[in-house]
Amino acid sequence: MSITTSIEARQVGFDPARLARIDEHFASYVDAGRLAGWQAVVTRRGEVAHSSTYGLRDREAGTPVEPDTLWRIYSMTKPITSVAAMMLWEEGRFELTDEVGRWLPEFADMRVYSKGSTLKPYTVPAIEPIRIWHLLTHTAGLTYGFMQTSVVDGLYRAAGYDLYPPAEVDLAEACRVFGELPLLFQPGTAWGYSVATDVLGRLIEVVSGQSLDTFLTERILRPLDMADTRWHVDGADAERLAALYVPDPASGRAVRYDALGALAYEKPALLSGGGGLISSAADYHRFTQLLLRGGELDGTRLLGPRTVRFMTRNHLPGGQDLGTLSTGGFAETNLDGVGFGLGFAVVDDPVPSRVPSSVGEYYWGGVASTAFWVDPVEEITAMFFTQLMPSSTWPLRPQLRQLVYSALVD
């Protein structure tokens, strides 16, 4: 499935010449060799006002980015998993305040890192148990091995969990290991980007009695007609997948990175609810429209509108922002004035970040520089896809906001 412009931009309040700046600006990244190629989509009031591609999905093969190109969306998987969890919540299958250890015993009686080294860490008992809302808000005290910011993420790496898990490890086994490792902080006291959404995926499996891939397919992907969204690519679809790149340390030019990129062609042993999906712009557009419309799309309702509004409010303790509570080390964006809801970052005040947006806008992105946001005030959604890792390489996300909001003239 591909995506194209569905309405003349002026009809939904955009200046077409100003929207064209998106293409001009990001084309310069490709022309300079810093990106291989990209795809951008901007919508308003459910209509696609701007859809463009530029450059190559596979520079070495010489194949262009096309409207139906497939992208590794990595952490843009997290909002989908969070919606899945909240669907079960709406059915009364659990409460957000329930202890995770009720379903996943490995997360009962957790300990928290206090001091020491990776060779000899000193831990103390967790004062508060990990609760389901802690997983949804990344306040559980879990972390990622690739963060490179703490002794605890060093312990994750020592256990074999860096950017990818050890080969042949499934989600249940990974969660068993995470439960044995100390927490980075006491649950509910800070914000740390983490494997929390992977644990949430395992919770979905236990509560629903289905594997995560089956649940997502039957309850979200198939009902929304997201046929391009999957855990790996094979057959004819393999040619549609964009290659993965990293910046050359000396020149900044994008260099192909097949060591990780090639994993997308293999069926994963671990179904990562935090970062495992591959998708297309057309598919993720349907997901963002579901959110913008309050949980319903084309007659299919997955969530109630009040649930979506609840998920996209700031749930951080005391209404604090990520600039205050974050343990750091994961993105290039300014986190001042940004809270976190149940699966999404949420803009409480756009002024501290010095980037235009609306109060109540919510968003997330992936480690290969993909990004999306939903603005319920202006009824805008925007998406950007490329395959450059890490996302902190270039300020693509704030620049996209500058370009989109400066083009809105009604």
Overview of the structural elements:
- By secondary structure, this protein is α+β, with helices and mostly antiparallel strands.
- It has a single domain, classed as 3-Layer(aba) Sandwich (Beta-lactamase).
- It has twelve helices and 16 strands.
- The strands form five sheets. It has an eight-stranded antiparallel β-sheet, with helices on both faces. A two-stranded antiparallel sheet has the order 4-9. A two-stranded antiparallel sheet has the order 5-6.
- A hairpin with a 4-residue loop joins strand 12 and strand 13.
- The protein is globular and about 60 Å long.
- The two termini are about 30 Å apart.
- The model has no long low-confidence stretch (mean pLDDT about 95).
Main β-sheet, in a few words? 8 strands, antiparallel
Architecture in CATH?
3-Layer(aba) Sandwich
Number of strands: 16
For the record, what is the CATH homologous superfamily label? DD-peptidase/beta-lactamase superfamily
Please give a handful of descriptors for the protein shown.
410 residues; alpha+beta; Beta-lactamase; eight-stranded antiparallel sheet; two-stranded antiparallel sheet
